[in-house]
Amino acid sequence: xxxxxxxxxxxSHTMDKSITLPPDEIFRNLExxxxxxIDIGGSLTKLAYYSTVQxxxxxxxxxxxxxxxxxxDKLYEISMQEEVTARLHFIKxxxxxxxxxxxxxxxxxxxxxTKVIKATGGGAHKFKELIExxxxxxxxxxxxxxxxxxxCNFVLKNIPHEAFVYAKHADSEFxxxxxxxxxxxxxxxxxxxxxxxxxxxxxxxxxxIGGSSIGGGTFWGLGALLTKTKRxxxxxxxxxxxxxxxxxxxxxxxxxxxxxxxxLTGDLIASSFGKSATADKDFSKEDMAKSLLHMISNDIGxxxxxxxxxxxxSRVYFGGFFIRGHPVTMHTITYSINFFTKGEVQALFLRxxxxxxxxxxxxKGAEEDNPNQYSWGENYxxxxxxxxxxxxxxxxxxxxxxxxxxxxxDRLERQxxxxxxxxxxxxxxxxxxxxxxxxxxxxxxxxxxEEALDGVVKRAVASQPDMPEAALxxxxxxxxxxxxxxxxxQQPFAYGSLTVRSLLDTREHCLNEFNFPDPxxxxxxxxxxxxxxxxxxxxxxxxxxxxxxxxxxxxxGVLAGNVFDWGAKAVSDVLESDPxxxxxxxxxxxEERPWLVDSYxxxxxxxxxxxxxxxxxxxxxxxxxxxxxxMPFVRELLSRGTEVVLASNSGPALxxxxxxxxxxxxxxxxxxxxxxxxGLREDRLLLVQSGSSSPCLDLSRLDKVLAMVVRERQTxxxxxxxxxxAIHTNYYAMLSCESLKMAVIKNSWLADRLGGKLFSxxxxxxxxxxxxxxxxxxxxxx
Amino acid sequence: DNIGLARKPPFPWFGMDIGGTxxxxxxxxxxxxxxxxxxxxxxxxxxxxxxxxxxTAYGKTGxxxxxxxxxxxxxxxxxxxxxxxxxPTHDLPAFLQMGRDKHFSSxHTTLCATGGGAYKFESDxxxxxxxxxxxxxxxxxxxxxxxxxxxxxxxxxxxxxxFENPADxxxxxxxPCTLxxxxxxxxxxxxxxxxxxxxxxxNxxxxxxxxxxxxxTFLGLCCLLTGCSTFEEALEMASQGESTRVDKLVRDIYGxxxxxxxxxxxxxxxxxxxxxxxxxxxxVSKEDLARATLxxxxxxxxxxxxxxxxxxxxxxxxxxxxxxxxxxxxxxxxAYAMDYWSKGQLKALFLRxxxxxxxxxxLLELLxxx
Lengths: 782, 370
What we know:
By secondary structure, chain A is of the alpha/beta class. Chain A has four domains: 23-63 and 73-160 and 357-411, Nucleotidyltransferase, domain 5 (2-Layer Sandwich); 163-247 and 283-350, Nucleotidyltransferase, domain 5, CATH 3.30.420; 432-514, AF1104-like (Up-down Bundle), CATH 1.20.1700.10; 520-766, Uncharacterised protein PF01937, DUF89, domain 3 (Rossmann fold), CATH 3.40.50. Helix content of chain A is 38%, strand content 19%. In chain A, the strands form five sheets. Chain A has a seven-stranded mixed sheet with strand order 5-4-1-2-3-16-15, sandwiched between helices. A seven-stranded mixed sheet of chain A has the order 7-6-14-13-8-9-10, with helices on one face. In chain A, strand 8 and strand 9 form a beta hairpin. Chain B folds into three domains: 13-141 and 357-367, Nucleotidyltransferase, domain 5 (2-Layer Sandwich), CATH 3.30.420.510; 160-241 and 286-351, 2-Layer Sandwich (Nucleotidyltransferase, domain 5); 247-283, no CATH class.
């Protein structure tokens, strides 16, 4: 059974009814809200609505040629435009606030199209009348299990690091799973008052294959009888302090030790409550609660394993109020699953498990909008993140009463899919270092991002000189991001594994939240203008070199160009103080060969062979990087007869070149360079957006169109450039074709870590193992 | 049985199974003692035989299950009666004291013992009663005992039986049967805890799984919830209670059947689920709680058994163990659960000598060492 509705009415009486956050920070964007859904459980209410958010975006537009003189030297103009995007809001709060919340929503709801509210959960009928009266919406009940499964599919597909394995004694309690694009089939074990075991085979096909009456209600009901403790949370507290061995009969109580013949260890429970079969002994509440917890967790784990085995399923997710973020039950269930499957099956939990019902109910109501057609992304700025409820982990989180938890998801403009060239999509992990597990690295990067905050705020204000309130907004941004960093210091697992990428993305989300869509737009514009002036000269000097000298110069050019990066602190300091910091100067800064990672010789050897069919190039920064580094390199590939797909960000991130900017830049270069011009004209040079707005790169979430182009063109070389895309992420990414990763390490801490120094070079050319490159002239298999 | 005759062990013949809660003892009383034998018989041996066969209760807690006695049994070429005796494991010291008082060790017999206690109390037997135990694996003994008792021709009622019409309480009756061609067989032994074995032949079996929710859990929880102290008391209360006041049923949540998933309204959705509410906690009786505990434990054993049967592809399930002693309620529940949830595919069988098979197996080991 799913969560039960009739719950001890005493649970809410002692609760503080004041809301600790102003409601307008919780129920955000209500004015445009439509399509409501609500899931009322035993103690928590989860509300969902769809809303649209209007925010500013930076657009670039090429000056036409006639107006060019009037616009001075500028290549393109930047304008701020308003754009409307879709956002899903999910809010979780204690049932005690339901009336206050409904009142607030009523007062702020402008949209009058909305007529119904989808409802699910055991408590839905209890509050039906109240909801209908307060909101004037008709309550439309949806099947609980259907909602649960729909919600589960949605989060598994759309939220990276949604699922995790719980390891109580590990350095980090939560070990997040990489998002596997193929989520089916799986088993969902929902532990509400009873247990439902559901096999999910596809979006629309699922079946309740079994269940058990021994569930959360048994723990709560039997626990209340045994210990006279009324609240579920308190029972768990008691259990975490108890010793079950005083109540349970263990194998060693029967055997005196282990039952060696069967390999049953002495500490194994032979009979739950086996020692309490006596009238003349008292047992402590803690011990009884602990024994009960073990009994129920083991039993559920055992049944889950039997069902998983029968149906040959290895992915088993656990949810329901018994689990809901409680470390105690996650631990005992994990233990049980490990015991019964000898480690063959892992117990998986979900970050947004509490929201599944409401997400599902919402999706049922939004079917005509086809939400499953889009990709969605967790908005780190608006989402609370996973909180540890473990009291010893984080004392300040213990007082949950009066707090609201939020999840916000943005509809992405593009549908995201895997790069078809990943060697094994299911084991692909974009991030090189997991800061959740590496405490030292975490400390450094959190410090680093906090240090950089002043600079980001300053640039954000500078990017909007015509807006007097920009300073105030920038200040709000500072507070929000600083608060996020503080939260992450306490709870590094809040949004899944903490990584440099997630820190960068969170910053972008916060900047967008306060309408700073592109703080670097003006800087990028200026640098693009300057770099373009040198393009012809750069190309000319390259063409004067011998073939071999030229290949090396091209690589050095890409690397030197990559030194120009505002995202890296060491460089932004130099750029700030000396805007004339030259390309030649950058080349001088570069490490001499042999580089820190150096497979240049193999690359050169490969170039002597036949050309690649098609190269996919993930580009990095604007200005010198793209214009003087990447473009000459691309030009050479084209000349060799290789088609080139330039993948750039869909939206702005730091000074990375966006697809919009790159379109204009390429046109301009084409006007000066017949090779580029021919490439564009003959459709051998393509500019495709990546679907990302991050300084890093997740190859499992790329624009569907890009994936299609990659497949159609039979891409056989992937080039990834820059620290964010080739070192912080994808350093270890295994591709099914040749790949080239090029970056300059512009951070001395990271350089140290990798055994190099500032401006060390990573040049990593790889041919997939077991797949000797048959095009390569160096050796031809007979 | 010539081999048996050739190395017939000296009397007395005992088999012992020392479990977590109960010690089970089987004793073979020879009835074909010749006058010559009688003369040679030492006094200690006579005294033990007389003590065991002339009483039905020993000390405060020892009991002979007279109704289970097998008469006119031929064992190892000797004719006699097989007696079934049990006492709580915590009274083992008193038993050892008695063995010492009766100079048991002077008889130079081998005491074959199985169960965890054979290991745990081995040194106590040596120190307190000067007895060496011949320790045997409990699952080996269990299977041997089951197969033996089912095979012996006895004048009494059939060893094996099942319930006809398990779905209909008014017409649910016990019917005798035999364990002919029993393999593969799922053997579920419900003692303090539960072991589930898949048996493919007398010597080929594996332990599939087990659960800690067994007879010990039923009694342990009943003691805590009702203040009772014996299995009989707990069962008596359970027979008078009503579990639906304690459990939350499907119909309590959905108002009837949960048709979407084929769950009948009467099915238990949450064991003890009604006890989440303070009012309901105050309105239930001890009898209701005892009944709910029995139903919870029994149904859970039923589900795990059914899943094992499916996973192992076995259709015959044999339930044994002392949890089923005088516990028709649980047996009928198990019979019904097997039948209902498997849509008639699974058949639940039971044996009269519920908890004594391990001890019988130990005795057989004495007579026919394997």
